[in-house]
Amino acid sequence: MATIAHSSVISNSARRLSPIGLVREGLREAISRRQLVRYLVQADLKKKGSDTVLGNVWWVLDPLLQMAVYVVLVSIIFERPQVDYPLFVFSAILPWKWFTSSINDSIKSVIDQGQLIRQLQFPKVVLPLAATFAGVVNFMFGMIPLFSLLVLFYRDRLTLFLLLIPVIGLVQLTFTIAFSLVLSAVNVFLRDIGNIARHALRLWFYLSPGLYALTTLEGSKGLKEHPSLLRVLEANPFAILFTAYRNVIYGTVTTNNGATPPQMPDWASLGALFGGSVILILVGMFVFKRLEPSFAKVL
To answer: Where are the chain's structural domains?
Structure first.
């Protein structure tokens, strides 16, 4: 009875908080429980590493296998030549795998701990945050095949611009956290979110310049007739992120399917995406904290 009464007090107090109060509470919980987030990240990595024979080595192999598939599909079957296409497509596959794995894991992060949530009182916001930060560690594993490709086959692209990858990664992490907060909370009440997300993410990738460069579309007849469509494609957050990663790893694609050397990313676009992502995190934190009091009832 005492536990029920305590939960009722927490639920009522949460409902009385203003939107700003809910966001502040969520941010305070996330910062004050960072040790718990770290523990959950370590536990998640250990669990995934023991679930399969190769464990986290899949983060090295899987992007390479995807790269091989797309290279055969685009370069050989569709005969669309592009200079150093394996590195070009790998520069998009790696961050996209990070994003999709983080989103898919965070969607399940709350419902997977349903029994714990019913028994204990703790800030639930640490669950999607831990799932998202675990993706950062996995992304670091993905740096192994990237640098292997550069050292073995593309030494001319080993430049100091590679040191900017963590900066671009920070922008992507901020963007990912916002989605993780909202989807993990909504999935408690609408369990189809996971299935919808998988299909939506697949479509999102093909609408993003992962297998192609935006410069190759600029001369197409359809975009010449509808230039506003190109602006929409350029506003896609992953058009900004893929282009930024490629700028520092691969270079930029020229209109004749050539490529320039690696260069600085577009800081204005990255800055705008980072600012928008921070706002989305605040919105996501509000949604999560607003729904949080009902988690135990539904789970």
So the answer is: 2-298
